[in-house]
């Protein structure tokens, strides 16, 4: 994950976190590993242990 972006209109509605969660679920379904280069995605994954199984 190199970049996540949410419209200014949607900020504060957990859309960014939902985006990261969907990316993690996609990785799981496709047996992929994730390298979170995006600082936001990295912080979301680091704070939620249940998302860390896809880390490379």
Summarize the structure.
With 56 residues, the protein is mostly helical. It contains two helices and no strands.
Question: Would you spell out the secondary-structure blueprint of this structure?
Answer:
Elements: H1 15-29, H2 39-47
What order do the SSEs take from the amino end to the carboxyl end, as H and E?
HH
Query: What is the number of helical segments per DSSP (H or I, 4+ residues)?
Result: 2
Structural class: mainly alpha
Helix content: 40-55%
Give a structural overview.
- The structure is a single chain.
- This protein has helices at residues 15-29, 39-47.
- It contains two helices and no strands.
- It has 56 residues and is mostly helical.
- The chain starts with 14 loop residues before the first helix and ends in a 9-residue tail after the last helix.
Protein traits:
single chain; 56 residues; mainly alpha
């Amino acid at each position: 994950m190199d970049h996540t972006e949410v419209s200014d209109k949607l900020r504060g509605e957990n859309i960014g976190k939902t985006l990261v969660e969907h990316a993690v679920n996609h990785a799981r379904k496709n047996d992929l590993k994730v390298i979170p280069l995006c600082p936001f995605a990295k912080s979301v994954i680091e704070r939620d242990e249940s998302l860390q199984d896809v880390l490379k």
